Amino acid sequence: MGKKTGLAGGFIIILFLLIVSCEKDKALSEVILGKWEVISITQITYENNIKKVESTLYFDPDEMKYQFIDNGVGIFFNNENDILFSWTLTGNQLVISKLFTKDLVADVSVKGSSLICTYIENDKDISEISYEIILTAKRIK
């Protein structure tokens, strides 16, 4: 009886590892597809490349969502309205167009059910100031 239990346990472990490794092998362009609920946006302020201030804004459930559809179309959902946008992904660089006044270019990663987008903005008036923006979202569909 001990051998059967050991074999069954070993089989379950191997099956789990295969499933996990298949998920890791998926391309980012596949993993990003779906609906993501924004949890927080962190802004880190740098002066002359030295970190000065960090603040995080947390969102209520359903307050802000992004949906990435496989044909390069997306939908931005917020409390006021829904907006269509275009997106492309090259490596880990995500470009979102037609949503803001200019294209948003961000580094993106997906770890489990978390999506993290990071980008840098320079202050329009003070050249020594820059901002690192980190958006964290969770998969909801």
Summarize this structure briefly.
20% of the residues lie in helices and 55% in strands. With 141 residues, the chain is α+β, with helices and mostly antiparallel strands. It folds into two domains: 26 residues; 108 residues, Lipocalin (Beta Barrel).
Helix content: 10-25%
Secondary-structure element string: HHEEEEEEEEE
Low-confidence segments: 9-23
Q: What is the topology, as strand order, of the major beta sheet?
A: 1-3-4-5-6-7-8-9
Number of separate structural domains: 2
| C-alpha-based Rg, rounded | 20 Å
Number of strand elements: 9
CATH topology of the largest domain: Lipocalin
CATH class label of the largest domain: Mainly Beta
Distance between the termini: 42 Å
Overall mean pLDDT stands at 87
Largest sheet: 8 strands, antiparallel, barrel
Class by alpha and beta content: alpha+beta
The 3D shape can be described as globular
β content, as a range? over 45%
Q: Enumerate how many helices there are, as a single number.
A: 2
Indicate the CATH architecture of the largest domain.
Beta Barrel
